[in-house]
Amino acid sequence: MSNPDINEITELSQALLYTLTFGFCMYKTNKFNYFDREWKHTKLFYISVIVQTFIRMTSFSLLAFAIPKNDRDLSYISVMRSVPDTLFYINYLLLAYQTMNIFYHSHINNNVRVTFLLHFTRPKFRKARKIIWLLIIAWLGTMGLIYALLITNKIENEFIDTGFTIVNLLSGTFVLLFLMYLHAKYSETPFKSQQDRQNLKILSGVLMIWTMGRYFKGFLGILVLNPKSIIAIFIYKNSSEIGKVIFSICLSLISEILCFYVVLDPSFINIFIYQDQANMKKGDIFSELSPLTPLNETVNLKSTIIDSCEVEILEPYKKRPKGFGEIFTANLKGRKILYRKLSFPRVSGYKLEDIKLEIEDMVRQNFSGLVTFHGAVIDLPEISLIISEMPKSLYKHLHEDKAIISLKDKNTLIQNICRLVKRLHGLGLYHGHLSSHNIMLKEGNKPLISDLGFEKLKEYAGIVLNYTNKNSWSSPEVLFETGSTVLKAKPSDDIYSIGIIIWEIITGNIPFEEVDEKDLREMVVSKGLTPKIAVYFPKDLVKVLKMCWAPIEKRAGIDYVYEKVIKMKLVVD
């Protein structure tokens, strides 16, 4: 069989391979409607991948079925062959940008000054996008000029192959060094959550596969360009015909199709879509507590920042002394919501950037078991948070309604609250000021947790609006700290608060009701005061409470508390 016949077989095989790849891409990108607003720009990456596979499929199909053999060395055919490679580097650039974004997002709560990253990632998305677009335009402009020179016969076809070989090696080296720099920069910085750790691990692995693909193609390019190399001899001389076909297919599989496969894997795509949409398909361990719903169960909002004209305020809901703003019932696009308004005298630009980051993060943290947060209205100097309409609080149920709860129902309620906190801690999320005020009870006394996060917003409200979230449920460590708000929540703070809440549910009493507010800090921190354990408390319950209120170095973790309350039976001696 002659060489042209081998070329036909190769091109036909490649056309079939990329047809299957294109179909796979179209099938796997059917989740575009579920993309998280934070990552909607990731659609551009996937669109570029689809376009690249389509052009590659079309090119090989035309070569196999439509273009005469004698025309395959023409310059416009070389352009057609290389356009997908040009698009691949755009995809590579977008993927590197996503990795940079994930690095910053994963550690956003740690108050680390990363001046280099701040130029590229949140909160300066506009600047980052401009840089990305400038690089893409520069690359397209350069390649457009090269193609024009090729078509006008100013340069030879080999120039394209040599150029891509150099770009493969240089781009792979640059991305590899940049990835090593990011890992070194954050090596001692904790993650926001285990999920963020896993997301970063997945994305870094994908970027490494793309980088190894660039190196593989680059080194093979060098060998092919050298006529004395083993690879060149294998391709052009004395090799079996089937060997040439296999080599061509393996090159495409390793350098491109493998790269497409890993970014179309569900574990990668799910980083950028609504996580509870994915959980709806997988099942959720919390389904017994709260039915899983889409991330924005009320309104499909285009942005975390909502225009004030979209909100119709109805009437005051409640206002607590030193509370976190005023709460109103309101309508948002036909749905009833709660509108928490904080009226500041002023908000600096620097502080506003921090608050916007917290708003974006809290929208991402929505899952069943938390009161749903939908976004915010920023109408400076007012900042208003929009959350789902809440059921009554555990505090209201116990102390205002004076509800009578059976021991069996108390036991179930305690278990469900501990299960919720266990899930929060498993995600690396800590409340810091958990109390019966921010545990809401749905129908059947199923708990929801509210008031999670917004540490910086709450800190600013504490300074300017006299807000405080330190109270009788706060751990000694929280009460000991200066300031009126919890600055950095820790798991031990939640454990102490759980002990207070368990005691509160069992007794029906308000913790430390007899202690004056101004004396609370001294009594709890200095004198080690804890709620009185009644003689009728079961031994298992007493053990749990003592472990929750132990000094911080001996205090139990949530796994221990949950294990004990699951086995605990509230039987009166």
UniProtKB/TrEMBL annotation:
Alphabetized Gene3D superfamilies for the sequence: Transferase(Phosphotransferase) domain 1
Origin superkingdom: Eukaryota
Domain Protein kinase: residue ranges: 313-571
Pfam families recorded: PK_Tyr_Ser-Thr
Any GO MF annotation of the entry: protein serine/threonine kinase activity
Keyword Thylakoid: no
Residue spans crossing the bilayer: 44-67, 87-104, 131-151, 163-182, 202-225, 245-264
Keyword Nucleotidyltransferase: no
Keywords recorded for this protein, A-Z: Membrane, Transmembrane, Transmembrane helix
PROSITE patterns: PROTEIN_KINASE_DOM
PANTHER family: SERINE/THREONINE-PROTEIN KINASE TNNI3K-RELATED
The protein's name in its UniProt record: Protein kinase domain-containing protein
